[in-house]
User: Fold this.
Amino acid sequence: MIRRLFTALGPEHDRALRRLLVLLTAAALLQGAAFVLLVPALREVLGREPESAWPWVVALAVVWTGYAAVNYPATLAGHETGTNMSRDLHHRIGDKVAQLPLAWFTADRVGGLGHLAAHRVVDIMSVPAHLLRPLVDTCVTPLVVVLAMVFFDWRLAVAMAVAAVAAAVAYRLASRGMQAADRHADAVHADAAGRIVEFARAQPVLRAFGRTAQGHTALDEALTAQHRAGRRMLRAGMPGIVGLGFVAQASFIALLALGTYLALDGSLGTAELIALLVLAARFVEPVMFTAEIGGAIRVAENALTEINALLDTETLPEPEVTRRAGGADVELDGVRFGYDGTPVLAGLSMRVPHGRMTALVGPSGAGKTTVIKLIARFSDPEAGAVRVGGVDVREMRTEDLTSLISVVFQDVYLFDGSILDNVRIGRPGATDEEVHAAARTARVDAIAERLPGGWDAPVGEGGSRLSGGERQRISIARALLKDTPIVLFDEATAALDAENEHALQEAMAALSRERTVLVIAHRLHTLREAGHIVVLDEGRAVEEGGHEELLTLGGRYAHYWRERNRARGWRLTGAGAAAP
Assistant:
């Protein structure tokens, strides 16, 4: 476990952790030496000349003073290391999460990540603060006692060594079942956490269909599984705790019986027997304590394994030397990509020229959003290349690529802060005037006027105080504030009303004169204003060109345009009538 602790903390904590281990080992050695000194001290006190025990008593006092002098800084170092470790582990997890490809963030992993950060880090925090000391004591103090016992009576030393081996075997056997049960329980807890979040987010749907009292089956099943996993952990842990305690107690009884036999046989004096039994009790004590905290130790071991597994997860490779883009045009060349073995893009080749708005059109599942994610390098293609300014995005460092691209997704998440704070995320160093200018372009000023507090009005967790269209306008303002040469819109106008959509269209048109703009488009106005249109179908670009040019071809785009025009003319009429 100590090796995994070093791995989880990283090299920057090696010195502090080694210092803690040295202090704890020194304290355990001094503690063991003090108990060893009890044997000659008690032997003299119980002998014919008690005054001859003074040298041993003085030596014992010196050793205990040394133990106290080492134990105090060791205790402080343990708590300090635990606190620093908790903070830095959260930072390491956060840094790692920021580097993971977007495809990693499946629903079950997101729930597990929350459980890892909230509970597993706390489990590990207890290692240096509370668990490392008994672990060191269990290994060092009995070893000192066994080695010292050789000088007093080799037979009792052999018996103690056998007892130590038996305790180690019992602990190892108990650990296997407990670790397996804890891993299963952790997976169940992560699933239950995800289901609770899902249940909270699904309240509008559940209440709309009258599912308020019984909730939904997935959550009930997850909570039931969580209860079963807890009981399974108890069943797996109790035999180990009881077994290790039984071995420790049986070892002490065996040592007591052997010492009594040797005393009755005349080969061991009564004073020596009493002193050696005190030593034997000290030998058994740390083993008993380990049995009591064995469950916590095994839980911490599993937590370390899980955190190290996350930290070892492969991220998108970064080049040693970054290449600078030679422009702002975007090209996909023979790109193949899929999710969990299901192909989405099948050799897609297309261009997004600079200085024009390019509209991406196609049916659901054609891969439109995937194209945007690959350009922003949320994942790497399985084959082919994505180039920005003639440079493969895999040859650019992440910070260099992201400095060129702004993305506006259809699903917008806002942080629990003010309107101004959420817009400023686009460029934290921007002045208030620049933030307000970008916000006004996206019509965010209307939101500020509506809410109490204006620009400082809180948006709520995830933007819960705002409508979908208002959240999208803030997201657009972020992209405008970032002011990058490439802007990617994932149907940014989907949740906007006609007035705000018109304002955004004007902003997009202005952007496209100076930037590379790619829009996933469904609105007819967006398609008409686009200078370049790419039609996707089954993961390929089946048509590419201008609006009038594609209409003249009479292909997929022309059919799509006619259907959208026809749908725009639909209206509701009285019963029994139909009006297209």
The chain has a mean pLDDT of 78.
